[in-house]
Amino acid sequence: MADTNYPSANNPQNYPPRNNSNTKNILIGLLAAGLLGTWGYFLYDKNQTSEKIQLTQTQATQAMSSKDSVQFLYNSSLTRLDSITGNNNSLQGKLSERQTEITKLKNQINHILRDQHASAADLKRAKGLIAELNDKIASLETEVTRLRGENQQLASTNTHLNAEKQVLQANLQTTTSEKEELAKTVDVASTFSASNIKITPIQIKHNGKEKVTDHAKRVDKLVVSFDVENRVARSGPADMYVVVTGPNGQVISDPALGSGTLTTRQDGDKPYTSKTSMEYEQGTRKTIQIPITQGNFQTGDYKIEIYQNGFKIAEGVRTLKKGGIFG
After folding, report:
1. Which residues pair with 311 in a beta bridge?
2. For the segment 243-279, what is each residue's pLDDT rounded down to a tens digit?
3. Where along the chain do its domains lie?
4. Quick one: which of 274, 240, 235 has its CA closest to 254?
5. d(CA 103, CA 115)
6. 73, 124 Cβ separation under 8 angstroms
7. In sequence order, what E strands does 146-220 have?
8. 193-320: which CATH topology?
9. What is the Cα–Cα distance from 76 to 80, expressed in whole angstroms?
């Protein structure tokens, strides 16, 4: 058989035999190393993720803590503001002057605190706004202190003034009472005094001449005359009332004489026969004459009473008698 370069089946070449067990072990080792590496990566990544989550939670907790602290500061400021304005009505005017600025600050602070994603810079800005708000609140507190001091001073002054008012009222009452008493005294003292009262029966003859007579049938009029004077009464008009009571006990009343009713201080209302007004000059004596006429005079006593200022200042009686043989 010819030589050939190809190995025959009956005479194989001398190659080293293959070791399948070693190869398998290598493969297993490589797989194990890869699996370990994968697990190691997963563990590392998990640790990193956990650290990131923890860091995030810490930062969130810190942010939340910062925000809560800002909220606490803000709430404290609002409490201060309420405490000084709620019970001080006198501050309402002062507060209204600064209300725009305070409202603006509160709106800005509330906007930051309501923001769920407020940054540290935002919270820092909120703290600055709260500090500015506190300055304004401190100014109001100073105003409260000043106003309280003024109110205390006013209260003290009012107490003093009330005491003085009571004293003045008491003095005024005393003065008023004394004045009224003095007025009464002056009023009574200003009543005229009358003197020299005369009651003259007059007969008027056909020729007009007048003649005094005491015969009732001949009398045409009774002339009442008297003097008055007073050093207290002021100069001016004064009214005199004459009450003439006839023998029958009735007061003579005649519209022609201006009869009427007067109010006396002692006898109440009383009818009068005639009234006359005069002009009086203070401190002087003046004579008054009042004529009393009627159709027929009766025999008997005629009582004459003079009233002025509600008081009886004089009275007198005149008797008229019958005539001669022919009556």
Report:
1. 308
2. 999 999 999 998 888 899 999 988 899 999 999 998 9
3. 28-189, 193-320
4. 274
5. 18
6. no
7. 193-204, 210-212
8. Immunoglobulin-like (2.60.40)
9. 6
